[in-house]
Amino acid sequence: MSNLLARDTDTHGITTLTLNQPERRNSLSMAMLDALSEALTDIAADDVTRVVVIAAAGTVFCAGHDLREIRDQLDSHEFQLALFNRCSEVMQQVVNLPKPVIARVAGVATAAGCQLVASCDLAVAADSARFATPGVNIGLFCSTPMVALSRNLSRKHAMEMLLTGEMISAVRAEQLGLVNRIVDESLLDETVHAMARTIAEKSGHTLKIGKGAFYKQLEMPLAEAYDYTAKVMAENLRADDAREGICAFLDKRKPEWKDR
């Protein structure tokens, strides 16, 4: 694993990916994006990981793109396009990963860092965490972060963050739907891992089906979404774990998942 990104998997099948460049505010440089992409590709194929936690070392979760790197490449449109495309690919990897992803947010998450939080399935933040899409303040509108943000927040709330560039508190982020829970920073790890363990105890096959269907139906008209999800549920019932889960519930025993 790249020294930019630490990776650890515990006995519950919870894999933590830690952005590990605090001296650069854990910015999403091309190298960091490559490291994240490689890790997510590996995790998608492994049989051990059941839940992913994305965390960060230091006092900043992620400050977005590396502005020094961007400044050094200001005259290279090719690099700029490659950088934003790469970032977009990584965010879609998070969404398309067949395993739930939880953002563990301590400190500041801005621009593409806020985009990363919004791209995760769940997010738990310390009460001191703050969020912003401040690109407008430096003449670079947060257009790609807007994609993830607008799929989490209402239109007017997303536009307020994008147009003002102002920092919002963890409390406000929870109110707007950007994060699920806020806790005292001393309880952050405990809360994140309790949530991850709860999810990790479910059938991995069922989680894969459900996560994929959730994002797919969001883009459909109502009738089409119901037609699609009815087929998903009927197909889900053919799985060994669905049969085991129903029988275990009726027999009042704990299910034994086969993840198939």
From TrEMBL:
Molecular function in Gene Ontology: enoyl-CoA hydratase activity
Family: Belongs to the enoyl-CoA hydratase/isomerase family.
Ranges that cross the membrane: none
Name of one Pfam family that matches: ECH_1
Domain of life: Bacteria
UniProt-recorded name of the protein: Enoyl-CoA hydratase domain-containing protein 3, mitochondrial
Coiled-coil residue spans: none
Organism: Marinobacter aromaticivorans
InterPro entries for the chain: ClpP/crotonase-like_dom_sf, Enoyl-CoA_hydra/iso, Enoyl-CoA_hydra_C, Mitochondrial_ECH-domain
Function per UniProt: May play a role in fatty acid biosynthesis and insulin sensitivity.
Keywords for the protein's UniProt record, in alphabetical order: Fatty acid metabolism, Lipid metabolism, Lyase, Transit peptide
